[in-house]
UniProtKB/TrEMBL annotation:
Belongs to the malate synthase family. GlcB subfamily. It comes from Roseovarius mucosus. Residues 155-215 form the Malate synthase G alpha-beta insertion domain. The gene is glcB. Pathway: Carbohydrate metabolism; glyoxylate cycle; (S)-malate from isocitrate: step 2/2. Residues 326-563 form the Malate synthase TIM barrel domain. The active site is at residues 329, 618. This is Malate synthase G. The lineage of its organism: Bacteria, Pseudomonadati, Pseudomonadota, Alphaproteobacteria, Rhodobacterales.
Length: 708
């Protein structure tokens, strides 16, 4: 049972109070913090509640509009007029530009991959922070990025030759020599410029400006589209000794930024969990987070990597970041927390996250050039905002947090996740509401699809999940996000991002497909692992995103009419086999994720799909699957009995997929555990869940398991 202490009329969980007062606060007394936070809660919690009430009211009106027109052909003009009347759609604001200042180069100027990782797991959090640099040789050698695989327990020379050939061919594309190929380089010499011996002749880079300098050990540093590439020279190594030039590796700047996530990828349901989340973020901001773990029979300690130092062509020392620039993703407006009670009731978790994560980041601000943000900013990503009113509220919230902590106005920079329909439809107004803090917008297919289905729940049955990628609304959504970012002046000030690559083991496919993200004008995109970040970074070597953005700025904006076209299955009947296949696919996905979340508190992991392909999943995946089945149930595409039968068919499959996990508790044959019940509730109660979110049911189930 949680023990509480009184702080200015707030009941604060004792472990949280100790963490904040003994470790988090810097240059601020406990009395100052709690008095300010108590006033903030009393002022803003009612406004938070009013915004949630407006979400419910709008959804009731939209549901009613669709019910009244059931069976009629969808009328887009009438629909948009209705949405305007009820305040769902707001007028487009007059032209404006972002006023954001003091933004680090990794966000404002250089395009590259972005990792998203659960901060609740210290090892994962450190891996993400350290993914700023990655070995291209290792990323190619150990994945399917190139055909074949390594054979035997030791180094496979044949595989190594494949890797080296791919890497040298890539250098020929993105940092070509004036004459010859990187495959034939025999020696390097530096004398204010880079001289390369190829086939007995001395040449240089075709673009001499790509030479950035050399390290103390003689490694060659290149810069391509702002990203660093290090040619590692080590003639004593197993690879370098067989290379004419002694090249043993090609290290490339990979994850420029990393979102340390307190939201969808964690299962933090109570005060104890929140202390773990905040404690790890604090360690990252202080620079002293460490994690000890066993690997290969050895006990290892992981800590944050140091910076990279080299000499530029003029002989001046350059210190380049060795770690990804870290942002923290706090929770949205919906959930409350038992970590702090006001008048005996739980308080908005979004406010606790804001106060504690920013207070922890003050340790980083005190570190200056050695810290995370060299520009003196704190970067917060806010998910699941519905429209400009909520964006304006968040701007006010972080302004109040700055007042409580004594920070200059707009120290906190905000990233607005464009993953809810009302935000997409009013994106320019949303950006304007945070225009002096905004450094990030992005698209997220899964959450956005979940909200698309929930908002249009009563309009009719939606198309099969696999067809959603071709829906009219989705193309408008992806293009419209870029259009809005460019129109607001995001170039040179912030990130326009694209969503996650969900198949961490399918790197060949990622290399083929994900170059579409920078080609779409996005200067960052999410990846599921450090290895994926290294491989995705090669796309940014090939695409000048800033130049592309300048060209895209003149195109016609994506049509709002397309964006607001529901993805309905009109005039079409599915066969019984097609329905069964869709049910099994979704039920297996739901069960596979929920059982780990509820029973083990795992918020993000590689979950095998129905075909045993590992997918990186978090709550966004769950939201789309549960809303999809809830919609089909309402419109008679399937029955409750068919869904129950599918759940019972898929539970044994999920059990078998987890058979090697000693902590796993099977769902079959009794089907009476908390995880199975939660999965079922997510479907059958899905239409009633606020915005189709999964958190309320998941949190209740996980708390029950922890209490037991």
């Amino acid at each position: 049972m949680t023990t509480y202490v009184d702080r200015h009329g707030l009941s604060v969980a004792a472990p949280l109070a100790r963490l904040i007062e003994d470790e988090v606060l810097l240059g601020l007394s406990a009395d100052q913090f709690w008095s300010g936070y108590a006033a903030l809660l009393r002022d803003l919690a009612p406004k938070n509640a009013a915004l949630l009430a407006k979400r419910r009211e709008l959804q009731v009106q939209i549901d009613g509009w669709h019910r009244a027109r059931r069976g009629q052909q969808f009328d887009g003009d009438a629909y948009r007029e209705f949405l305007t009347e009820i305040g769902y759609l707001v007028p487009e604001p007059e032209a404006f530009e972002l006023g954001t200042q003091n933004v680090d180069a990794e966000i404002a100027q250089v395009a590259g991959p972005q990792l998203v990782v659960p901060v609740m797991n210290a090892r994962f959090a450190l891996n993400a922070a350290n993914a700023r640099w990655g070995s291209l040789y290792d990323a190619l050698y150990g994945t399917d990025a190139i055909a074949g695989r390594a054979e035997g327990p030791g180094y496979d020379a044949a595989r190594g030759r494949q890797v080296i050939a791919w890497a040298r061919a890539h250098l020929d594309k993105v940092a070509p020599l004036a004459a010859g190929s990187w495959a034939d380089v025999a020696a390097f010499e530096v004398d204010g410029a880079l001289r390369v011996t190829v086939g007995g002749h001395v040449t240089g880079l075709a673009d001499a400006g790509q030479f950035a300098g050399t390290t103390a050990g003689g490694n060659v540093m290149l810069r391509v589209n702002g990203l660093m590439i290090e040619i590692v020279i080590d003639r004593a190594s197993a690879i370098g000794r067989d290379d004419p030039a002694g090249i043993s590796d090609v290290r490339i700047e990979s994850a420029l930024t990393a979102i340390q996530d307190c939201e969808d990828s964690v299962a933090a349901v109570d005060a104890d969990d929140k202390c773990v989340v905040y404690g790890n973020w604090l360690g990252l901001m202080r620079g002293d987070l460490q994690e000890r773990f066993e690997k290969g029979g050895r006990l290892l300690t992981r800590a944050l990597n140091p910076d990279v130092t080299y000499l530029d062509p003029q002989g001046n020392e350059v210190v380049h970041p060795g770690r990804a620039l870290m942002l923290v993703r706090n929770v949205g407006l919906l959930m409350t927390t038992d970590a702090v009670l006001l008048d005996g009731k739980e308080t908005p978790e979004v406010m606790l996250d804001a106060a504690v994560t920013v207070a922890a980041a003050m340790h980083d601000l005190a570190r200056g050039a050695e810290g995370n943000s060299r520009a003196g900013s704190v970067y917060v990503v806010i998910p699941k905002l519905h429209g400009p009113e909520e964006c304006a509220f968040v701007d006010t919230l972080y302004g109040r947090v700055e007042e409580v902590l004594g920070l200059p106005q707009n120290t906190v920079k905000l990233g607005v996740m464009d993953e809810e329909r009302r935000t997409s439809a009013n994106l320019m107004a949303c950006i304007k509401a945070v225009k002096d803090r905004c450094v990030f917008i992005n698209t997220g297919f899964l959450d956005r699809t979940g909200d698309e289905i929930h908002t249009s729940m009563q309009a009719g049955p939606v198309i099969p999940k696999g067809e959603m990628q071709k829906a009219i609304w989705l193309a408008a959504y992806e293009a419209g996000n870029v259009d809005a970012g460019l129109a607001a002046g995001m170039t040179g000030r912030g990130q326009i991002g694209k969503g996650m690559w969900a198949k961490p083991d399918a790197m060949a496919d990622m290399l083929e497909v994900k170059i579409g993200h920078p080609k779409a004008g996005a200067n960052t995109a999410w990846v599921p692992s450090p290895t994926a970040a290294t491989l995705h970074a090669t796309h940014y070597h090939q695409v000048d995103v800033a130049g592309l953005q300048a060209a895209l700025k003149g195109r016609d904006r994506a049509a709002r009419a397309d964006l607001l076209t529901p993805p309905l299955m009109v005039g079409r009947n599915l066969s019984g086999e097609e329905v069964r296949r869709e049910l099994d696919n979704s039920c297996q996905s739901i069960l596979g994720y929920v059982v780990r979340w509820v029973d083990q508190g795992i918020g993000c992991s590689k979950v095998p799909d129905i075909n045993d392909v590992a997918l990186m999943e978090d709550r966004a995946t769950l939201r789309i699957s549960s809303q999809y089945l809830a919609n089909w149930l309402i419109h008679g595409i399937c029955t409750a009995e068919e869904i129950d039968a599918s759940l019972r068919r898929m539970a044994p499959k999920v059990d078998a997929q987890n058979a090697q996990d000693p902590a796993y508790r099977p769902m079959a044959p009794d089907f009476d555990g908390a995880a199975f019940k939660a999965a079922r509730d997510l479907i059958f109660e899905g239409a009633k869940q606020p915005s189709g979110y999964t958190e309320p049911l998941l949190h209740a189930a996980r708390r029950g398991v922890k209490a037991a």
